[in-house]
Amino acid sequence: MNKKEFFSAHDPEIIPILQKAVIGIAGAGGLGSNVAVSLTRAGIGKLVIADFDKIEPSNLNRQQFFIDQIGMPKVIAFMENLKKISPFTQYQMHEIKLNEENIPFIYKDVEIMVEAFDKAEMKKMLIETWLTNFPHKPIIAASGLAGWGKNELLHTRRSDNLYICGDEETDLQNGISPMAPRVGIVANMQANLVLELLLK
Q1: Do residues 130 and 160 make contact, with C-beta atoms less than 8 angstroms apart?
Q2: What would the mean pLDDT of 112-136 be, rounded to a whole number?
Q3: Domains with residue ranges and CATH for the chain
Q4: What global pTM score does this model have?
């Protein structure tokens, strides 16, 4: 397969814009892996992804990994999976826990950041660090995606360069687990917003 064949269903006017884009994703779990797959299929030029976790059996209900990858570092396994989708995106992977010090270095070249963490304190840290260091670059976060149904509650809210996708209500708690359909919807809301910001 060549590049022309891969992009044959794309609008030719947007291909150069997408291929020049550099997008950051913080986390390669339920949100991050689904965002990355969609952006890879869309033809984004470069993805910068960081995660320090290894794949566990419980991840497979919503994350873009496979049984034979259990135990592998997520970023290593995920690079394999993304390359099987498209060789026309560059993948810069970092097996590291993100913090206030390394975020500005790892993501210094990205145009748009996607927050894809599970824990509220990590979400807060990333958003605050991003808006402090890159106030003119958008960050797309997610809040409220556990459970199933309730499509009508999902929305996108903007506050300057911070965008939040989800219902902003549903917390992770016993009996309300994250499941593939709703996680996938919110992840694709984030990915779709990346394209909107790049192409508008």
Answers
A1: no
A2: 96
A3: 3-199 (3.40.50.720)
A4: 0.95
